[in-house]
Write a structure and sequence with these properties.
Two copies of one chain form a homodimer.
Chain A lengths: L1 E5 L3 H14 L2 E5 L3 H9 L5 E2 L10 E4 L6 H11 L5 E4 L5 H7 L8 E6 L20 E5 L6 H13 L3 E5 L1 H29 L4 H6 L4 H4 L7 H10 L1 H23 L3 H11 L2 H9 L1
Parallel strand pairs in A: 1-2, 1-4, 2-3, 4-5, 5-6, 7-8
Antiparallel strand pairs in A: 6-7
Helix pairs in contact in A: 3-4, 6-10
């Protein structure tokens, strides 16, 4: 099995590590940043570094680049690969990508995949083992991929100890905007607000244990990964962001009015998230 | 040493556990909720449960009730305790409390304390060992307390492995609004926004690994603890919340304009939080 991973950062790099370790695959790597490619080679993330024109012999090609490059890259790769090759991406937005490849003659070779895993770090140095363990993997629009391609991808992710679920790409983008993308925006803006006021940083240092540290964790995330996601999934994100801002404005009014009953009711209703998240732990 | 802890929830309960374990103190407990008092006794958090009129023999009285009850309770307790007793609170807001006791004849017996520790759980069942280990403790307006009282309190918190720092109560309330209180509001409203859209909860369950879980953790916090904090520290919180909303609106405009450069610049500047938080880890 010849596998090529394109994009050797946190996700692609961690995935390559697992393919080598758990499936004993030989993994070829491609990265448009020569330093990243070199680093991935040094760190043993990939066995060799190749150029895109060499993927014609690959059995599996994994696309792990920022989402703005995905649609064009997917077409380019599908054009090049052999008839029976399987191509899948690992991006956080799906609708535009699926639309772009919709009428490609090798559409059934392609599987739209979103493994829900990550950390706030980036680049090949951020690649780690066990990143995907016990997490959820989403395959979108599976009816547009060949059953063989879907089965192969599910098997690979099963080996990585992921639970695969299936969604429509449009629904995926809507839900992920609320549950993932909005979290990143709220965290980035929290970090920004606090950095602006705490210019000497000493107070952040001293007070971060008070809930700030976990809430702001995502504000360490890569701008190069996230800017394209926010733009690609613009419509859904703007809806979620508008609702978030409206909720903040409502809550602000309750504080202004010193409306203790209203504040408690709102927080109590939101405490329900506890049961939802406890459900996840089970 | 006779110690009384008033308020046997997460903070008071955890503190009582440590006083018993590390300092071998006999701890008396008071809670206006008889079920909480009974539970604390059952769980071995306190040795006995007493009523407020019995605190006249206490050497140390710890006030661990919601912040809206603190000013009145502090006065009541200072009125009752013996001449050499030490009284300190553990609340998250300080300015109003310090103003209320400012001219009390036993003001120097009182120390305004804020140990920066907690979890998103509440009540006596939430009391745990090691809650305070390696965290920061803030003493406000120390020049208004007797050197003996301050030294005693610092020693107790040292034994609990906390690092004590000193701040002015007004400054404390301003900084904690940004670094702690705002985090809770952003988290509560994130939880609310996602619960509103994800009515069947299945998608939260499946997608929570994508950053949502850590960002929304604080939305599990106690409404009874937090509603008084938001009202007590209203002015500072409204300032921080206004800046937060303004930042979200600015970021929304960048997304609307698909301004990739602006988005990246904003996120890159905020990534600086990484170094600030890494500083904390050292």
């Amino acid at each position: 099995m010849v596998v090529t991973v394109i994009g050797l950062g946190l996700i692609g790099g961690s995935f390559a590590l697992e393919l080598k370790k758990r499936l004993n695959y030989t993994v070829q790597g491609i990265d448009n940043n020569p330093q990243h490619a070199q680093k991935a080679l040094e760190l043993g993330i990939v066995d060799t570094v190749i150029t895109l024109d060499k993927i014609t012999t690959s059995d599996v090609v994994v696309l792990a680049v920022p989402v703005n490059y995905l649609p064009q890259l997917a077409v380019q790769v599908l054009d090049l690969v052999k008839e029976e090759a399987i191509v899948f991406d690992m991006g956080s937005t799906k609708e535009k990508l699926c639309k772009t490849v919709e009428y490609h003659e090798k559409r059934t070779n392609f599987v739209a995949v979103h493994p829900i895993a990550g950390t706030e770090y980036s680049g090949p140095e951020a690649a780690i083992y066990h990143l995907f363990d016990d997490k959820v993997n989403i395959i979108c629009d599976k009816e547009r991929s060949s059953p063989y391609a879907v089965a192969t991808v599910v098997e690979i992710f099963n080996t990585l100890k992921m639970r695969t679920i299936f969604m429509n790409s449009k629904e995926h983008d809507k839900h992920i905007a609320y549950v993932s993308h909005l979290s990143h925006i709220s965290s980035f803006m929290l970090g920004k607000t606090v950095l602006e006021i705490e210019k000497d940083e000493k107070n952040i240092f001293d007070m971060a244990g008070s809930g700030f540290e976990s809430t702001v964790r995502l504000a360490k995330s890569s701008p190069h990964m996230w800017s394209p996601i926010f733009i690609e999934n613009k419509e859904n994100i703007l809806s979620s962001l508008n609702e978030y801002i409206d909720n903040l404005i409502e809550f602000r009014a309750l504080i202004e009015q010193e409306n203790s009953t209203g504040l408690k009711q709102t927080m109590k209703a939101t405490n329900h998230i506890k049961e939802v998240l406890n459900g996840i732990k089970k």
